[in-house]
């Protein structure tokens, strides 16, 4: 078995996976939102829970906020609060999907009053970024149509381009816009940003600080996601990942749970495309909901899954792979990839963690910490994440 060499260890040491604040709230399906004892009642409590994940894994130094689910009056103060807990505030996520005004569109709406309102919401999100020091504004646009003929597909694209340009113009030189695509839902005939190509077309029109966000749950079944990763890296426009797993649709389950091999293939393309190099534009985030499992261990398991598949990707003998590819040696090339994928890196990573003063087994350390019991006793009346609220 190949060892994790010095360059591989550098990649692991620098790995950072952003946690979504909404993963700590109760979530569910359209049928039922189950509540979990200890669910946070405030963003401060969500940050405290996220800090547990980082404390035990060293992998999750930042937390993404969602506006308006995480509204506070002073974001500078919230940033300091996070810092005291050992984490930082990360990506700011906008929301144009829970307001009656946006039933027929937000940034694409034909009614100028409503489109203006949606643009202004994003400008307010940039105000938050100024206060928190966040780098990324992430736009997941729920806009779309349900019936052929319902909307002017091209007109909607034109209005979207104009809205995005107004938002982009408000960003500082240090800030970025990432545009997430999704094949369907909440609308089922067209989505206004349904695929990476549409997102790419918009972000390239905006400028150098606009990128595509790839949510792993937002594709048709059997889409080759690593191909999209390779292409976007090649084009210099892969800005961020929303990691999660899907069995059927946008399931938002624990990343690496449904298809660890796919996660490995994606991370291998990230590695090959320079996505782990210093200065790369690629950021890694989770976008998950924990409907039935405890949220903090759910997040711990998630970041460990990403770390594990990164370690396996780092084990691929790239030199030998290139030689096999160039020689047209199909089976050796495939075998080299599979050898790395099938390598159990868990003992090596446990040792690696211990060297850094982290628990060898973060899941067990969390269970033994008593934190879950404490929050279950202390927090009464935990709120939903915003999903299903
Ligand atoms: C929705 O399907 C998207 O995955 C969003 O990225 C995300 O869940 C949302 O931005 C949270 O507000
Ligand atoms: Zn997402
Ligand atoms: Zn999603």
TrEMBL record:
Pfam families: RhaA. GO terms for molecular function: L-rhamnose isomerase activity. InterPro entries: L-rhamnose_isomerase (IPR050337), Rhamnose_iso-rel (IPR013457), Rhamnose_isomerase (IPR009308), Xyl_isomerase-like_sf (IPR036237). Gene3D superfamilies: Divalent-metal-dependent TIM barrel enzymes. Keywords: Cytoplasm, Isomerase, Manganese, Metal-binding, Rhamnose metabolism. SUPFAM superfamilies: Xylose isomerase-like. Its EC number is 5.3.1.14. This is L-rhamnose isomerase. It comes from Cellulomonas fulva. The gene is rhaI.
């Amino acid at each position: 078995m190949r060892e994790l060499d010095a360059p591989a260890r550098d990649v692991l040491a620098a790995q950072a996976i952003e946690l979504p604040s909404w993963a700590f709230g109760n979530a569910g399906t359209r049928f039922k939102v189950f509540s979990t004892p200890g669910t946070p009642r405030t963003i401060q409590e969500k940050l405290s829970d996220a800090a547990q994940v980082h404390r035990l894994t060293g992998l999750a130094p930042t937390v993404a906020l969602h506006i308006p689910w995480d509204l506070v009056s002073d974001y500078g103060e919230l940033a300091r609060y996070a810092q005291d807990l050992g984490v930082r505030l990360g990506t700011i996520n906008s929301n144009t999907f829970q307001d009656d005004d946006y039933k027929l569109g937000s940034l694409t709406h034909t009614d100028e009053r409503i489109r203006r309102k949606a643009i202004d919401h994003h400008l307010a999100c940039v105000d938050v970024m100024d206060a928190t020091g966040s780098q990324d504004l992430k736009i997941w646009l729920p806009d779309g149509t349900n019936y052929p003929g319902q909307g002017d597909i091209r007109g909607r694209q034109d209005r979207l381009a104009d809205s995005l340009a107004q938002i982009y113009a408000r960003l500082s030189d240090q800030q970025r816009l990432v545009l997430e695509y999704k094949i369907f839902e909440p609308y089922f005939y067209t989505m206004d940003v349904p695929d990476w190509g549409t997102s790419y077309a918009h972000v390239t029109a905006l400028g150098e600080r606009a990128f595509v966000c790839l949510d792993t749950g937002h594709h048709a079944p059997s889409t080759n996601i690593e191909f999209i990763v390779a292409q976007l890296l090649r084009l210099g426009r892969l800005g961020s990942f929303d990691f999660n797993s899907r069995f059927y649709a946008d399931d938002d389950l624990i990343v690496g749970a449904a298809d660890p091999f796919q996660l490995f293939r994606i991370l291998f393309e990230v590695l090959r495309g320079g996505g782990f190099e210093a200065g790369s534009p690629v950021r890694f985030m989770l976008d998950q909901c924990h409907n039935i499992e405890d949220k903090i261990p759910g997040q711990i398991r998630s970041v460990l899954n990403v770390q594990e598949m990164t370690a396996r990707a780092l084990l691929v003998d790239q030199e030998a792979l290139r030689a096999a590819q160039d020689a047209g040696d199909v089976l050796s090339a495939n075998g080299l990839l599979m050898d790395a994928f099938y390598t159990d890196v868990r003992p090596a990573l446990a040792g690696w963690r211990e060297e850094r003063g982290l628990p060898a087994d973060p899941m067990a350390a969390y269970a033994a910490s008593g934190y879950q019991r404490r929050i279950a006793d202390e927090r009464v009346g935990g709120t939903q994440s915003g999903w299903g609220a």
